[in-house]
Amino acid sequence: MTDLADSPLVRRLADWDDDRLESLADEYDTPLYVMDLDRVTENYARFSAAFPDAHVMYAAKAHTGKAVLEAVLEAGGDIECAAWGELQRSIDAGADPNTLQYTAVNPPDHDLDYAVDLAAENPGLTITIGARDTLDRLAERDYDGRIAIRINPGIGTGHHEKVATGADAKFGIPYDEVPEVADRVRREFDLVGIHAHAGSGVLTDGLEDHCRAISRVGEMARRVGDDELEFVDVGGGYGVPYREDEEPLDLEKTADMVREAVGDLDATLKLEPGRYIVADAGLILSTVNTVKEAPDTTVVGIDASLATLIRPAMFGSYHPMRNVSAPDREPHPVTVGGPVCTSADVFAHDRPIARPEREDVIAIGNAGSYGYELASQFHSQPRPAEVAIEDGDSRVVRRRESLEDVTRVEREADATGDR
Ligand SMILES: Cc1ncc(COP(=O)(O)O)c(C=O)c1O
Fold first, then answer.
1. Architecture label for domain 96-273
2. 289-320, pLDDT tens digit by residue?
């Protein structure tokens, strides 16, 4: 059992040990992803403790590294997956396939085939569908197993319009069509749950919208008969403070509001947090390679880029940054960018940071979720290594890629004449 007494609600970048981070950069080189597995365990335990009667699944999409999945499983969590690769990797990490939930969003044939084959041997697996079409395709595959219906609550929430899935037609069965779809699922499959995910990155001030969406989920569950459902799944979306002055989510208040919004249910409440479990457990270490005085700003070039962490370029997201080599130097407003040839490859504009010099190590915080997961090899850059910290020790859990890794699939195609 994790002791939560010493576990803060939030882990700010300044709470990490600067010397330790510098020595990790020295030992493993940069850019480097660092993941504190003990913090992953704490976050899972804290979140579950706030929802004692609920079933908390970890949304693997936030970070699908094996070490993270193992830590979640070890902490007693189950896993929600969004693609066949996440299912396979969860199983590789030790998950019982009977406990997995696969959320099918416009699922490619390969994904459906994989899930159906898996369910044939593991009837506990649940497939969440968001389109009638997916039911047709499952029926064509002779699937008659467990189905949860993802509904479109018509209310989106979250830190950015591109993550406000609850109001996006792409996701879920249109609200008023759900009872009819539920009838069909009951006839042809095993209807076990109602599901929705309204959006991501919700902090305390966004809870009201989030709960309005959730109340629609509870309402629909009662409409289709919650006494015949196993669970009502209200998705993830619970945020972490990215800015130093933002307050962490008030978990007690969140749990109270979610419970109240969903209302009385005979079915078990399920939640699927991703970011909350892993965001502040991870950071990126990078090294300053360039300091340039431009007429309007000081440009600091680092070896991490949008290929390492795409959130700032994709969503305009703020990530805290800290000069861990010299945290006590006078703060100086700097523009921090990486080696990718686009103006989008900028982590911060005119941000006061302890004046960086060449070779300093800069830490980028809250990179544990949607960091490595969205990394690319843009500019033929091999992806960085990832190091896990556990019980105070560090170990490489994903080695640094080489240029050989980047070009392997091309060379193999050349060798087999497939190109
Ligand atoms: C269906 C579903 N569940 C859970 C999540 C996890 O969201 P978060 O990481 O914001 O908790 C997502 C995120 O996109 C999702 O689509």
1. Alpha-Beta Barrel (3.20)
2. 999 999 999 999 999 999 999 999 999 999 99
